[in-house]
Write a structure and sequence with these properties.
six-stranded antiparallel β-sheet; 0% helix; 2 domains; binds (2S)-amino(carbamoylamino)ethanoic acid; mainly beta; binds manganese (II) ion
């Protein structure tokens, strides 16, 4: 990409955005002293959540967000420890956690580390319990088939249960695999390409996407993906769900 000529693959539109690494902007964010933070999705673009990269030098600490905000974190490089009161968890590459809203905690870089973080205002459901801390690794979650041709599978990282108002999954496409149809839905997505690549349809446009790309899909953004190349394409995908569209 010829940055010196003002080119980028990033596109910010009304109902979708593709943010490629060449346009990342480091910004100071309270709660992450000493870390390099790149906010790629936020309410300023129309989203109802935020998504950012945190590049942490060894020993750096990330503090809890505001009281009503829940936080999902996936380690991309290095290792961190997550402390909640007396509980201490170590997360290595593709280790993750969902920290419920209101849970005081600290994330400390055990080695230099790079994280992807998603945060949203938690939407409680009357009669349902408050969600509990979830800690796991992507590889430990079973891969469920998602297409008849066997080329698409999904690993669900969070319990499919009433207390949770969001879902975070890893979708895995074998080369030539695709979403079975063009989806349109009221929920929105934050996505990070973890590996491989292909073609993403967003609204009426088709984009080539590669590892490291981030996509925001707003409500009702028509969406479809087809994997290209010789190795599987994998992406992390968040969606708000499990709540009535009139709630909140
Ligand atoms: O769960 C989803 O809505 C998912 N299949 N969407 C997507 O991959 N764009
Ligand atoms: Mn979708």
């Amino acid at each position: 990409m010829r940055r010196q000529l003002g080119e980028t693959r990033s596109v910010i539109a009304q109902r979708h955005a593709l943010i490629s690494a060449d346009s990342h902007e480091v910004t100071p964010v309270p709660g992450w002293p000493g870390s390099r933070i790149v906010v790629v999705i936020s309410p300023q673009m129309g989203a109802q959540f935020s998504q950012f990269f945190a590049e942490m030098p060894g020993g750096a600490v990330g503090h809890a967000p505001a009281q009503r905000v829940e936080r999902f974190v996936l380690v991309l490089e290095g290792a961190v420890s997550l402390q909640l009161g007396d509980e201490l968890h170590e997360l290595g590459v593709e280790g993750y956690a969902l920290v419920p809203a209101g849970a005081a905690h600290q994330i400390k870089a055990v080695t230099a580390a790079r994280l992807i973080v998603l945060e949203k205002v938690f939407l409680p459901l009357e009669g349902a319990a408050h969600p509990e801390l979830v800690v796991g690794t992507v590889a430990a979650q079973p891969k469920q088939a998602m297409s008849e041709d066997g080329l698409l599978g999904v690993r669900k990282l969070l319990p499919v249960d009433q207390p949770f108002d969001c879902e975070v999954n890893v979708m895995e496409f074998q080369p030539g695999g695709s979403l079975p149809y063009v989806e349109t839905h009221f929920v929105e997505h934050g996505l990070l390409m973890l590996s491989g690549g292909g073609i993403y349809r967003l609204d009426e446009d088709w984009f080539s996407v590669v590892e490291g790309d981030v996509i925001w899909m707003g409500p009702y953004c028509p969406q479809w993906f087809g994997a290209l190349g010789t190795r599987p394409a994998r992406y992390l995908i968040y969606k708000n769900w499990n709540r009535d569209p009139l709630a909140g």
